[in-house]
Amino acid sequence: MATWKNEIESRKTFAIISHPDAGKTTLTEKLLYFGGAIREAGSVKGKKNQRHATSDWMEIEKQRGISVTSSVMEFNYQGHRINILDTPGHEDFSEDTYRTLTAADSATMLIDAAKGVEAQTKKLFKVCSMRGIPIFTFINKLDRQGRDPFELMEEMEDILGIRSYPVNWPIGMGQDFHGIYDRHAKKVEWFNPDSPSQTEVVYVNGTDDPKLKERIDPQLLAAFQEEIELLDVAGDAYDEERIKSGELTPVFFGSAVSNFGVQNFLEYFMEWAPAPVGRESDQGFVSPLSDNFSGFIFKIQANMNPKHRDRIAFMRITSGKYSPGMQVNHVRIGKNMKLHQPTQFLAKDRSIVQEAYAGDIIGLYDPGTFRIGDTLAESGTFSFEEMPHFSPEHFAAISVKDAMKHKSFEKGLQQLTEEGAIQLFKTYQRVPEQQIVGVVGVLQFEVLEHRLNNEYNAHIKMENLPLSVARWVDGPAEAMNTFTRKQKNLALDRNDRLVALFENEFQLNMAKDKYPDISFHENSYFV
Ligand code: G4P
């Protein structure tokens, strides 16, 4: 096999999904630390702050002390190249949090042992399960008293519909936390609260090995032995296929802040997580090992450098190898173009890419030529599957204050929609039609107002609408006819697909009962 193909096979591109405060920043730091990309914890947070300081619309984020931008981090670990797609931890995330997941080949779900499956994890999980990607679970904060591990597994099954395969299992918890037992490799990693990251590893001959008796009090040991027996007898067995398809999640316990259990997780992850996976296109499946370099734009970020008002389009390389000076087809606009100085992102810096392979993410300078979902290919005119839109959760009617500024207002709205910062709808029945903006997190409204004002000199009027759910609808012609005549709050998305807007889930369910022949899709994918 040619070496560039080995390069591709050595890659792991994944995202961490979690609810704010579960410890994602902490876990990311530890992973970067293992990869030698940072020397000490805190560097990632430091970097976030720095980036805020150099970006003007991110001023909003700075004032609120949060981050709404997703970033990509890369490091090498034991012959593997790891790309972590970071997703914002705050509730005010935007739609591109979801879309970032389309660039990942697997996900790590991080759960706080005391809190279990929380709202944001559930939302992000749904997107992963829609794509059927493998999901690895890290249950964090075992150094504190949390919930019963069986209860957490049950919750994952009830709320997320995924079965668990615990690879390791905690011996005690909180004050009583002794360490983790690796069921697969039959070894114990002892936890020492005084120097938690200095892991002492002992191989054992099952759970009744005398080495365990020496260190665990009889009551705790008996409970632990019983738990392992229960898992062995009644739990799901290791099943590679079910893990690959996202039906079964390997579960790991640990404490990110103590750097405990992180390496155990990382080592299994390296072995089990998929190498870059190909993608479907309108002309068939594109294999990552194809000679033809190709990729798709999944995220556009404006103003990474305020002096230049630049936009960076993030591309996931789907197949082949990138080399400098390469010419590609921009399939949507039918033009051949040179890729100018793509950048890659390390823990601290951006650097110019010399070579990149399927599975990698590169940032392309974007003078306004790219849209979310665009395909670039060295040869051929195929397009990758359309990027899905997901239901916004907040809606506002929007118009420009000064009619003279109408043109730049429209241009701004269009650009922000292309970047994926907002979704734009227009009312379906209302005359004159009205523009409606939908966002996943309310902070995006502020970003929108700030940017239209600053970059397009357009002052806007925004009126919040009492709506929180959008569904893309379709059905047989006759049923659609009745539906569009009778249903209120219908709108068209930017591709003129019909969308029904509802105040809440209750209203949506009423519509489902009333119009059984109509299908209500949670995202634009299925229409
Ligand atoms: P996020 O990115 O998911 O929002 O979470 P982040 O890593 O910022 O962690 C949230 C809080 O949880 C932090 O505490 C962090 O130290 C703590 N934490 C992370 N992992 C563990 C763990 O394994 N055990 C325990 N006990 N705590 C953990 P903080 O007080 O909010 O911030 P800090 O002052 O400690 O940085």
From TrEMBL:
<feature type="domain" description="Tr-type G">
    <location>
        <begin position="9"/>
        <end position="277"/>
    </location>
</feature>
<dbReference type="InterPro" id="IPR038467">
    <property type="entry name" value="RF3_dom_3_sf"/>
</dbReference>
<dbReference type="Pfam" id="PF22042">
    <property type="entry name" value="EF-G_D2"/>
</dbReference>
<feature type="binding site">
    <location>
        <begin position="140"/>
        <end position="143"/>
    </location>
    <ligand>
        <name>GTP</name>
    </ligand>
</feature>
<feature type="binding site">
    <location>
        <begin position="18"/>
        <end position="25"/>
    </location>
    <ligand>
        <name>GTP</name>
    </ligand>
</feature>
<dbReference type="GO" id="GO:0016149">
    <property type="term" value="F:translation release factor activity, codon specific"/>
</dbReference>
<dbReference type="InterPro" id="IPR009000">
    <property type="entry name" value="Transl_B-barrel_sf"/>
</dbReference>
<dbReference type="GO" id="GO:0006449">
    <property type="term" value="P:regulation of translational termination"/>
</dbReference>
<dbReference type="InterPro" id="IPR035647">
    <property type="entry name" value="EFG_III/V"/>
</dbReference>
<dbReference type="InterPro" id="IPR053905">
    <property type="entry name" value="EF-G-like_DII"/>
</dbReference>
<dbReference type="InterPro" id="IPR005225">
    <property type="entry name" value="Small_GTP-bd"/>
</dbReference>
<keyword id="KW-0963">Cytoplasm</keyword>
<dbReference type="InterPro" id="IPR041732">
    <property type="entry name" value="RF3_GTP-bd"/>
</dbReference>
<protein>
    <recommendedName>
        <fullName>Peptide chain release factor 3</fullName>
    </recommendedName>
</protein>
<keyword id="KW-0648">Protein biosynthesis</keyword>
<dbReference type="InterPro" id="IPR027417">
    <property type="entry name" value="P-loop_NTPase"/>
</dbReference>
<comment type="function">
    <text>Increases the formation of ribosomal termination complexes and stimulates activities of RF-1 and RF-2. It binds guanine nucleotides and has strong preference for UGA stop codons. It may interact directly with the ribosome. The stimulation of RF-1 and RF-2 is significantly reduced by GTP and GDP, but not by GMP.</text>
</comment>
<dbReference type="InterPro" id="IPR000795">
    <property type="entry name" value="T_Tr_GTP-bd_dom"/>
</dbReference>
<keyword id="KW-0547">Nucleotide-binding</keyword>
<dbReference type="InterPro" id="IPR031157">
    <property type="entry name" value="G_TR_CS"/>
</dbReference>
<feature type="binding site">
    <location>
        <begin position="86"/>
        <end position="90"/>
    </location>
    <ligand>
        <name>GTP</name>
    </ligand>
</feature>
<dbReference type="InterPro" id="IPR004548">
    <property type="entry name" value="PrfC"/>
</dbReference>
<dbReference type="GO" id="GO:0005525">
    <property type="term" value="F:GTP binding"/>
</dbReference>
<dbReference type="Pfam" id="PF16658">
    <property type="entry name" value="RF3_C"/>
</dbReference>
<dbReference type="GO" id="GO:0003924">
    <property type="term" value="F:GTPase activity"/>
</dbReference>
<dbReference type="GO" id="GO:0005829">
    <property type="term" value="C:cytosol"/>
</dbReference>
<dbReference type="Pfam" id="PF00009">
    <property type="entry name" value="GTP_EFTU"/>
</dbReference>
<keyword id="KW-0342">GTP-binding</keyword>
<dbReference type="GO" id="GO:0016150">
    <property type="term" value="F:translation release factor activity, codon nonspecific"/>
</dbReference>
<comment type="similarity">
    <text>Belongs to the TRAFAC class translation factor GTPase superfamily. Classic translation factor GTPase family. PrfC subfamily.</text>
</comment>
<dbReference type="InterPro" id="IPR032090">
    <property type="entry name" value="RF3_C"/>
</dbReference>
